[in-house]
Design a protein that fits this description.
Radius of gyration: 13 Å
Distance between the termini: 40 Å
Structural class: mainly beta
Largest sheet: 6 strands, mixed
Oligomer: single chain
Helix content: under 10%
C-alpha cells in the first residue's frame, strides 16, 4: 500500500524557515515524480512544487520561486521542501503526492503538515 507521511510544519514568523519532510513507503519511490501542494484556509488546493523521479528537474509556483526548494532522497525514500523567507500567505496545510497533480482527481494520502506564518 502506498503511504505518504508529511512532517516538519509548525509556527514560524515572517522571514523564517521551515523544512517539510514526506516519508514514502509501499512503492518504488525512485520511479515517481513527486510534488507538494498546499491548502490555505478557505481556499482550494494549490500546487506548489514538483521534482522528477531522476531529481534533475524541478518546478515551482511563481509565488514561491526563489524561496522554496524541493529535493528528494531515493535512498531514504524521502521528499523535502525547504521553505525560506516565509510569508503569511504561505500559511496552510501542506501535502505531498506522487505522479502528476490533477486537482479534480487528487486526494491526499497523508494527514498533511500545518505551516502557520504569523508574527
Amino acid at each position: 500500500e502506498m503511504r505518504l507521511v508529511e512532517s516538519g510544519g509548525g509556527l514560524a514568523q515572517p522571514g523564517e524557515s521551515l523544512r517539510l519532510s514526506c516519508t514514502a513507503s509501499g512503492f518504488d519511490f525512485s520511479n515517481w515524480d513527486m510534488f507538494w501542494v498546499r491548502r490555505a484556509p478557505g481556499k482550494d488546493l494549490e500546487w506548489v512544487s514538483m521534482i522528477t523521479s531522476a531529481g534533475d528537474q524541478t518546478n515551482y509556483v511563481s509565488s514561491v520561486k526563489g524561496r522554496f526548494t524541493i529535493s528528494s532522497d531515493d535512498v531514504k525514500n524521502m521528499l523535502y521542501l525547504q521553505l525560506n523567507e516565509l510569508k503569511p500567505e504561505d500559511t496552510g496545510m501542506y501535502y505531498c503526492g506522487e505522479g502528476i497533480f490533477v486537482s479534480s482527481r487528487w486526494s491526499p494520502r497523508g494527514q498533511g503538515t500545518q505551516v502557520t506564518v504569523s508574527l
